[in-house]
Design goal:
alpha+beta; 2 domains; five-stranded antiparallel beta sheet; four-stranded antiparallel beta sheet; 10 helices; transmembrane
């Protein structure tokens, strides 16, 4: 989630745990603790793929943050003026303010390495977009009440309760979407296909579904307010014939560990050379893909890996008009939104008649 939300979450957790005893201090310190894991954004590994795949890494590890919280609890118990606060209470305060950050990040699409240093893929079970005002607003209101009124517990506790209730709603909404999706997948023989179900930007009423099917990937939108209107499925190419070449590269393997199989591959002229480009299909929206990487250049019949991979401008035809269409589609299933209208034509394989 965004930094403001993470600071607000840490503040709300801090106020809920120690607000009665420390007042505003519990809220302010909690806000600082809630932002600490994201300090890794200032780390530059000197390589685009490394930067994207190391983010939300060791600083988001439950093991690391629990250890840090334990150390801070011991220091607070030894040196803090509030001598009546037990070591156990300090421990709960520091650990919860820290670990709730990566646990919230897990509920977004990006992927969070909460089990670092274990060699497992990043964890992600997306139920909220990386920025969701309906989640953040109750936290901010609760914190504001605490800072203005001086009661460090009541406002943060209510704000935290409402934001948790919203997450529960989002989880239930995702279950409804997956239930509505089942007959659509069965009709196309895609029941076993790898898929990603995630909310569209800034809401939990309309959900984007991406389904990987060999050389193709399918996109559909499913809304809670759709009623009996069946989802439209659009089909795109993803350049899977280039996947073996990408996976033969160390950086390609790393990117596959991070985002596979939700990757699109292409050969594009970049800086005057034929370049192998990989695009993350998860992050963003069709036509708004934010992360594309130059992995290798072609020399005669072989691919030569770039010593330092670089981000490249995504190949899209998206414009701000899509946001207006998205807003209309959230509330009205009859408001046709064809994502293929924002994607370069060479990637489009099949669209419904309505598009």
């Amino acid at each position: 989630m965004d930094t403001l939300t993470q600071a607000a979450l840490g503040a709300a957790v801090g106020g809920t745990v120690l607000g009665r005893r420390l007042g505003r201090k519990a809220v302010l310190i909690g806000a600082v603790l809630g932002t600490l894991p994201d300090l890794d954004v200032f780390l530059d590994y000197g390589d685009a793929v490394a930067n994207i795949t190391e983010h939300r890494g060791f600083t988001h590890s439950l093991f690391v943050l629990t250890g840090l919280g334990t150390l801070l609890a011991l220091l607070a118990r030894r040196f803090a003026p509030a001598r009546d606060i037990s070591l156990g209470r300090w421990w709960v305060y520091f650990v919860l303010c820290l670990v709730t950050h990566p646990l919230l990040d897990v509920l977004t699409t990006y992927g969070t390495q909460i089990w670092w240093p274990l060699d497992v893929r990043p964890s992600a079970w997306p139920v909220v977009f990386i920025i969701d005002p309906l989640y953040t607003l109750p936290l901010l209101v609760g914190i504001g009440i605490a800072l203005i009124g001086g009661n460090g517990f009541r406002g943060p506790a209510w704000g935290l309760s409402l934001s948790c209730a919203y997450l529960l709603f989002a989880m239930l909404a995702k279950g409804v979407v997956e239930h509505r999706l089942t007959p659509v997948l069965a009709e196309r023989g895609l029941e076993e296909a790898t898929r990603l179900v995630q909310p569209t930007p800034f809401n939990t009423l309309l959900w984007r579904v991406t389904i990987i099917d060999g050389d193709r990937h399918h996109e559909t939108l499913v809304g809670l307010l759709d009623g009996g209107t069946p989802p439209m499925v659009e089909t795109f190419r993803r350049g899977a014939e280039l996947e073996p070449a990408a996976l033969a590269l160390e950086k390609g393997q790393r990117l596959d560990w991070f985002a596979g199989p939700f990757l699109r591959y292409e050969v594009r002229e970049w800086e005057g050379r034929a370049t192998l480009i990989a695009t993350d299909l998860r992050l963003g929206f069709p036509g708004f893909y934010a992360f594309s990487y130059a992995l290798a250049i072609r020399e005669e019949e072989t691919w030569q890996p770039l010593q330092v991979t670089e981000m490249v401008a995504p190949d899209s035809r998206a414009d701000l008009d899509a946001l207006g269409q998205l807003g209309a589609r959230i509330l009205d299933a009859q408001a046709t939104l064809c994502t293929s209208g924002f994607v370069a034509e060479r990637w489009v394989e099949d669209t419904p008649e309505a598009c």
